[in-house]
Amino acid sequence: MKAKYLYILIAVLIGQVMMTSCNNPTEEAKAKYIFLFIGDGMGHTNVFITESYLSYKAGKFGGEQLTFTTFPYQGDVTNYTAESNITCSAAAGTAIATGYKTRSGFIGVDADTVAHPSIAEILKAEGYRIGIMTSVPMNDATPAVFYAHNSSRGNGYEIAQSIANSGFDFVAGNGFKKHKNKAGEYIGDYLAENGMKVCYSQEEFKATSKEDRVVMCEPYNKNVEPMTYFAGAPVPEGHMSISQFLENALDKFGEDPFFIMCEGGEIDWAAHAKKTMPTVMTILEFDNAVRKAYEFYLKHPDETLIVVTADHATGGSSVGSGDTHLYSVDWEPLVSAFEAAGCTNTLNQEDNRKLNDASRIGWTTSDHTGDNVPIYAIGKGAEKFCGRMDNTQIKGKILAE
Ligand SMILES: [Zn+2]
Fold first, then answer.
1. Where do the domains of the chain lie?
2. For 30-398, CATH number?
3. Is residue 16 pLDDT above 70, yes or no?
4. What residues does 387 pair with on adjacent strands?
């Protein structure tokens, strides 16, 4: 009899341990500090070529890693739209931010143009402080899906006006697309007249208060349409990186609960141009920003969630190209040409293709591809980002719904 009761007791205890690990209430609450990083166009293979480059630099054939690929929970995200198996940033961003599939070009609205709140808008209403930052114009599709609702990503001026209404605390990027309306009025002036402190330098940011709602704008774009393509072109003086923006937001938010969306937007631009080294460099810059968040996580491991993903893949890149059997990719031609040009690649398409061929890095398209994209997570609730998922599920996982 005693043995029988002992077995029952053990069984009950095991059951309770399993119940606790599956239903631990602390696992159900969302994190106090939430980082969502989106590498625009950062498909698996663009991550692979970046790690291949790092391994080359370390004198190895492989094994070097970016910060985010070391995160303990990893998955694979489907990203088709309501109308296509290949998405654009607007449709993919809307799916990530609102949980709804939509059509290409739609911002924060579903396929029937019905608006749905974004993760950032929901968390703002719950008292979180909100930071949205990107290396491309701050009213481009990926940042826009977090604060705007518009059936055309082309309505840049109207989309940027939504920044003032959003109530968000910090929005930063490389100026604005459609920076003037038909009357010639500059969007930065509109935002300044509607409750935002618009800063064009770190000095101007330092002069703002913790409670000011801030727009950070690359200084050289104050009155210029920011279509200059820095992914491979010389970086202008006064450039502020997404790492810098991230530090600014962290300084501003202090110990308050926050949601930060940080986009590596230029990754997509470099991959559209099939430019290998600029793709690698923009992913390394993105990883630098992730590392800042990781350092924050190390100080607040029980309260912080970091999620890193992509909206879609771009360029159809591969580590290896051509028809030779059993060879090794040779980074030397790409790296030496890039470094000799002062870490730029302003080559025309044909010369760029020859360079890729010499190194045997393959590019199959100048546009997006329909591959699943990677997702990486660490911290509170990170285990939910394991395995295969759809991009519409990311919102619910972050909000612990
Ligand atoms: Zn693109």
1. 30-398
2. 3.40.720.10
3. no
4. 75
Distance from the alpha carbon of residue 137 to the mean position of ligand 1, in angstroms: 13
**Ligand 1 is a single-atom ion; what residues have CB below 5 A from it?**
268
Report CA(170)–ligand 1 centroid distance (Å).
25
- Coil, helix or strand at residue 28: helix
Q: Which of 102, 46, 67 is nearest to 371 (CA)?
A: 46
Ligand 1 centroid to Cα of residue 270, in Å, is 9
pLDDT band at residue 234 using 50, 70 and 90 as cut-offs: confident
Distance 267 CA to ligand 1 centre (A): 9
- The Å distance, Cα 345 to ligand 1 centre, comes to 19
C-alpha 15 to ligand 1 mean position (Å): 49
For the segment 274-319, what is each residue's pLDDT rounded down to a tens digit? 999 999 999 999 999 999 999 999 999 999 999 999 999 999 999 9
Query: For the segment 172-219, what is each residue's pLDDT rounded down to a tens digit?
Result: 999 998 889 999 999 999 999 999 999 999 999 999 999 999 999 987
Cα 357 to averaged position of ligand 1 atoms, centre (Å): 23
Distance of CA 366 from the midpoint of ligand 1 (Å): 9
Q: Residues 270, 278: contact at Cβ < 8 Å?
A: yes
Average pLDDT over residues 359-370: 97
Q: Cα(314) to centroid of ligand 1, in Å?
A: 7
Tokens of 339: 């470094």
| 373-379/304-310 β-pairing | antiparallel
- Nearest in space to 348 (alpha carbons), one of 356, 339, 340: 356
Phi/psi of residue 169, nearest 5 degrees: -90, -30
Which pLDDT score is estimated for 28?
78
pTM comes to: 0.92
pLDDT at residue 4, rounded to an integer: 52
